[in-house]
Amino acid sequence: MMKVGIQLYSVRNHMAENPMDTIRKVANEGYRYIEVANHNADKDAGVGFGISAEETKALLKETGAQIFSAHIFPLDPAQMTPILEFHKEIGTKYFVQPMDFYKDKDETLRKAEMLNKVGERCKEYGMQLLYHNHFHEFQHFGDETIFELLMKHTDPELVKIELDTYWTTRGQQDPVELLKKYGKRVCLVHQKDFTKGYEAERDLLASVEATNDYVDMDRFNRDVKPETFTEIGTGIMDIQSIIDAANTYCASEAIVLEQDYSQHDELESIRISMESFKRFKGVEW
After folding, report:
1. Which phi and psi angles does 155 have, rounded to 5°?
2. DSSP string, the chain
3. What angle (nearest 5°) sits at the alpha carbon of residue 161, between those of residues 184 and 134?
4. What are the Cα distances from residue 188, in Å, to 168, 185, 254?
5. What's the rounded Cα separation, in Å, for the pair 10 and 29?
6. CB 122 within 8 A of CB 76
7. pLDDT tens digits, residue range 8-58?
8. Residue 235 dihedral angles phi and psi, to the nearest 5°
9. Dist. CA 195–CA 233, nearest whole Å
10. Do the strands 193-194 and 229-230 form a parallel or antiparallel pair, or are they unpaired?
11. Is the pTM value of this prediction over 0.85?
12. Is 262:21 a contact under the CB 8 Å cutoff?
């Protein structure tokens, strides 16, 4: 049975205003299994927002929450010692490569080797590196997708998976089949929902594959519409089947809410999703 967790990117605007109070509010909504998002790791070795390890530990004790995972960017194996030291002190288990882009097969293989090196550094500290996907990793370079190349050319003990099921569907993939395929290599599942009425726009990969385009951040942001994201249980995804597959085939400890966009205030959004999570079988919070 998976725990229900939250990626704090879901409440990033509130975090920017008052990170400590936001974490208190997130925990009060029932999300006590927390994944942080630090996209400035070259300047801040911790959880982001200038919060010290001592402040983090005190806040976790106060709220009864735990930081089990961290999205860290940039990931540079030569610059990771202070980051690893911080997260070892607060008890983080997983390090995650949150996003990357790939021009061709050669670059993909070079980045796979970099992931192996980062995974080795994480292992030295008793942590596990995970790779988090978006839709563009399912672009083909030859007969294989970027995702297949990354998984093939990384050590499965050093680099495991945080499968984002929403993005897999937008990359022409069936998340249940991917959970079956990669099995115990999947340690965490990321979940959001796709908005009903936008089915015709669900496939983001077709136009990329048709012209063999390079998906960089500009292209990614141009293609993605905020209105195609909705709260758990309010869209068209078969989330119960995803939970069932993860519990059956994978070593997934948690299903982690990552709400990229919402039509609601962020705290109201995560409240709606938690109420839906409570109706699913096979999860606990």
Report:
1. -70, 120
2. -EEEEEEGGGGHHHHHH-HHHHHHHHHHTT--EEEEEES-TTT--SSSTT--HHHHHHHHHHHT-EEEEEEESS--GGG-HHHHHHHHHHT--EEEE-----SSHHHHHHHHHHHHHHHHHHHHTT-EEEEE--SGGGSEETTEEHHHHHHHTS-TTTEEEEEEHHHHHHTT--HHHHHHHHGGGEEEEEE-EEPTT-GGG---SHHHHHHT----HHHHHHH--GGGEE-TTSSS--HHHHHHHHHHH----EEEE-----SS-HHHHHHHHHHHHTTSSSEE-
3. 140
4. 14, 9, 5
5. 13
6. no
7. 999 999 999 999 999 999 999 999 999 999 999 999 999 999 999 999 999
8. -115, -150
9. 10
10. antiparallel
11. yes
12. no
Separation between Cα atoms, residue 20 and residue 34, nearest integer Å: 13
Tallying the residues shown for the chain, one arrives at 285
Amino acid at 271: R
